[in-house]
Design a protein that fits this description.
Layout lengths: L1 H12 L2 H39 L1
């Protein structure tokens, strides 16, 4: 119970800007990871063997 109460109090002290900044950081991290995955898939499938598979 104490841990939950403490973390809730800490959240209350944060300003809305700080909360938004934290959310943005998390979102950007996720987006970067997704972009890396997509890039890896694209490199594997289309760039190395692109013309061969299309023909």
């Amino acid at each position: 119970m104490m841990k939950q109460k403490q973390s809730f109090e800490v959240l209350e002290f944060k300003t809305q800007q700080e909360i938004n900044a934290d959310r943005r950081k998390k979102f950007e991290k996720k987006r970067e990871e997704l972009n890396k995955r997509v890039a890896n898939i694209r490199n594997r499938s289309s760039y190395r063997s692109g013309p061969k598979t299309n023909v």
